[in-house]
C-alpha cells in the first residue's frame, strides 16, 4: 500500500474534526445550546463529503461506520467545555484552510476512483471542501462564504484542479496529492495573511 | 405480522399529515398563495424522510407510490380552506410533538432495517424528525428550530437513541417503539408545558 | 428515433444555459467575483436536475459527462465579461420562462422513463424546474420565488401535469411535450406580461 493510501484515512479524520470544530465555534459565537453545537458540528464536518457521495453514487461515508459522527460529537463537546477565547481566530482560519485544502484533494481523488471524468471530479473536490461551510452558514443564517470576495472557493478549486491536472500529466499519485494540497493551502494562507481577494463585478 | 409492523404505515401517514399541516400553517402565517401552501406542505411533510432515504441508500419512500404526496397536497388544501384561528397554537405544538416522536422512532427503525449501525441509525431518526421543519424554516426565511434553546432536537434524539438502545438491550421491537415514542413525546411535552430549554453557552 | 428524442438533449442544454445565466446575473446584481458567478451558475443550472436524479434514483446527469458543467462555467464567464445593461430584464424573464417550461416537461418525462408513477413524476417536473432558482435564492439570501404570489411554480406545475396527463390520455409523446411546454410558457408569459398572480390567504 502506498504512503498516500495509508495517510488518507487520517487526513480525512483530521479534516472532519477541523470542520466540526469550526461548526461548533459558529454555534458558540451565537451562544447556543450543546445540542445546537452538535448539530452544527455534524452538518459542517460531514456535509460536504455527504453531498459528494450522493452525487457520485457512492454509499454515504459515515453510514456504515460510527467514527465520523463520533468525531463530530466529540468536537462539539470539546468546544462547549472550553472558554471561547482559547480559540485564536487567526489559528482557526489556518486550521480551516488546511481542512479546506485536504478535503478538496480528497474529494477529487475519491470521485476519480469512482470513475468520474476530470471536470466533474474537480467539481466534487470543491463540493467536498465548501459545502460543509455553506450548510453551516445557511443554518446560522449568516451570509455564505461563497458571497465573500476573499479567496476561499478559489483555493479549493485550485487544489482540486491541480490534483486532477497533475494526475492527467502522469504525476505519481502521492506527489500529486501533496503538491495540490500545498497549492490550496498556500493560496488560502496568502488570502488569510494579506486579505487577498478577487475583484468584484463592476460593469 | 407483529402489531408494530401493522401500525407503522398508519403512524407514518399520520406523522406526514401532521408535518404537512405545520408547513401549510407556516405559509398561512405569511399570508401566501395556495401553491406556496402546497410547496411548504410537501417540503415539511416529506423532507426529513427523503433525506433519510437518500443517506441510507433506500429508494425515496414517496417515489413509487402516490399516497404521501397526496396527503401533503390535501393537507395544504384543508389548511387553505379554514380560518387560521381554528388552529389552536398549543394543540398544534402537541400534534407536532407527536409527529416528531413518531418520526424519530420510525426513522431509526428504518435505518436499522437497512443494516445501518446503531450510532448513524439514531442520527437518521433525528434527521427524519427534524429536517422537514428545517427545510420549512429555510424556505420561509425564519430562524431555524435548531437555533432555539427549547428542547426539540433533544426530544427527537432522546426518542431515537432510546429505540436503538432498547433494541440493543434485547427489548422486544414493539415495546421498544412504544417506550421510545413515549420518551420523545414526554420530553417534548414537558418543553411545551413548562418552556423547558437547554442552557446556552456562556464561556 | 422520434423527433422529440432527438431534440431533447438540445432543449436540455438550452435550459441549462438559460438557468446558468440567470444564476450568474443574480451574482452580477450583487456585484460579486467571478468565482461566485461560477458557483451561482452551477447551482442554478444544475440544481433542479440534480435533485430530480437523486430522488428518482438515476445517476446524476452531469457526473458522467463534462458538457453540463462546462455550459454553466462558460455562461458565468460570458455574463462576467458583459456590461449588465445589455441584459434586458423583460427578455431575461422570458428566457427564464422558456427554461422553466422546458425543464418541467423534461423532468416529468425523465421520471416517467424511470418508472415513477404519474403523481410523483409530475412533482419531479416541478422540482427540476424550480429547485435551481430556489438554491440560487437561498445562496443569495433573498426571499425565494416560491414565496411570491406571481405565477411561477404554478406554471411549472401546469406544464408537468399536462405532460403526464396527455400521455395518460394516449396522446403521442412529441405532441404531449410540445403542448405541455406551450401551456407552461403561456401561463408564465401571461404572468410576466400582465403581472398575473394567485390570491393570497386572508382568513
The gist of it:
Chains A, B, C: It comes from Novosphingobium umbonatum. Chains A, B, C: One of its GO terms (cellular component) is plasma membrane. Three copies of one chain form a homotrimer. Chain A is 74% helix and 0% strand.
Per DSSP E runs of 2 or more residues, the count of β-strands of chain A stands at: 0
Q: What structural category arises from helix and sheet content of chain A?
A: mainly alpha
Work out the helicity level of chain A: over 70%
One letter per element, helices H and strands E, the order of chain A comes to HHHHHHH
Tally of separate domains of chain A: 1
Global Rg of chain A = 16 Å
pLDDT averaged residue by residue of chain A: 88
Assign an overall shape of chain A.
Answer: globular
Strand content of chain A: under 5%
Determine the oligomeric state from the structure: homotrimer
The biggest beta sheet of chain A reads: none
Low-pLDDT stretches of chain A are: none
Which two chains touch over the largest interface? A-C, 28 and 31 residues
Q: How far is the N terminus from the C terminus of chain A? A: 53 Å
User: What is the overall number of helices of chain A?
Assistant: 7
